[in-house]
Amino acid sequence: MARSLVLLSLLSLLVSVALAGLTTIEHSLKEDGSLAILVVGDWGRKGTYNQSLVAQQMGKVGKELDIDFVISTGDNFYEDGLTGLDDEAFEQSFSEIYTADSLQKPWYTVLGNHDYRGDVIAQLSPVLQMVDCRFICMRSFIVNAEIVDFFFVDTTPFVVKYWTKPKDHHYDWRDVAPRESYIANLLQDLEYSLKASSARWKIVVGHHTMRSVSKHGDTEELLQYLLPVLKTNGVDFYINGHDHCLEHISSTDSPLQYFTSGGGSKAWRGVYTSNADKVQFFYDGQGFMSLKLTECHVDITFYDVEGQELYKWSMAKINRGAFPSSVSVEAERAETTT
């Protein structure tokens, strides 16, 4: 408990409020100027559907890479979010699963649509950090690590069907409704922050897919409202979950790269539908992603539930240009067998 309180106090010192309303968390780089992170999404199932196995491999890779933090792309607690601050699912799906020493780092987390089916205010509450100080969840915020800005975006309110055709589900729209005003303000804040950013790399993180060839496919509302903001402001990558798979898709009309890391537990949907952009890699199974950054170079790797490297992709940024490297032989072979 003492260690948790100390870490929580240190974290609170790092948080400042941006002028346009998005909270910014400052995160330092390693001494050599690099950053290493893991990305996982759609995981919160109390260890079932291989969640525990994915967590074990994350611990091993996290140790090898000496990661600085973890990004969660949402759907943190199935099926219907948390019921409140005292919901045991928080520890059963998070604290008791991701136990490796290497994963005892900040988890920067966005909400998914399943999280919105529960008590959103509870999941956003800093009180949960008294239970596990790693869990940092906000609707939309920025993590600045000097060479890179991560812009975390709350994508669930964009999707119209959750408002108009919720079926038997209840969505917690407190502090969100009315939808139109919320989205307009969020896009304004995001664009302001993107334009103000002087970071070498700009990465946007959301739960919902922008481009995907799996079950959920493209999210039309994000293509309509969010994508133009990303393209106009030179965003390098959009990282998401929602589809329970691993994939890399390249835009055909911009340098933007789309990465899905939604294989934290239940997967194997058996759906593949091509879209207008270029599919570089698709794996219809469980796993996670790593990202290593320096000022001029990025390495991205996808891993399966056994910790095997499925796909590696690198990009060097020289001056203002971006030049992707070729995919390795192993990555090409993995892609053709999935």
TrEMBL record:
Record SUPFAM superfamilies: Metallo-dependent phosphatases
Q: Where in the cell is it found?
A: Secreted
Its cofactor is: Fe cation
Cofactor note, please?
Binds 2 iron ions per subunit.
- Keywords of this entry: Glycoprotein, Hydrolase, Iron, Metal-binding, Secreted, Signal, Zinc
Q: State the organism named in the record.
A: Rhynchospora pubera
Which top EC class is named for this enzyme in its record? Answer: hydrolase
Q: Which family does it belong to?
A: Belongs to the metallophosphoesterase superfamily. Purple acid phosphatase family.
Pfam families xrefs: Metallophos
Q: Where is the signal peptide?
A: 1-20
The record's section on InterPro entries has: Acid_PPase (IPR024927), Calcineurin-like_PHP (IPR004843), Metallo-depent_PP-like (IPR029052), Metallophosphoesterase_PAP (IPR051558)
Keyword Membrane in the entry? The reply is no
| Name listed for the protein in its UniProt record | Purple acid phosphatase
Major location, coarse class? secreted
The Calcineurin-like phosphoesterase domain, residue ranges: 37-245
Single GO molecular function: metal ion binding
Looking up Gene3D superfamilies in the UniProt record yields: 3.60.21.10
Chain sites annotated for binding Fe cation 1: 42, 75, 78, 244
EC number(s) on file: 3.1.3.2
What GO cellular component entries does it have? extracellular region
Task: Spell out the reaction equation it catalyses.
Answer: a phosphate monoester + H2O = an alcohol + phosphate
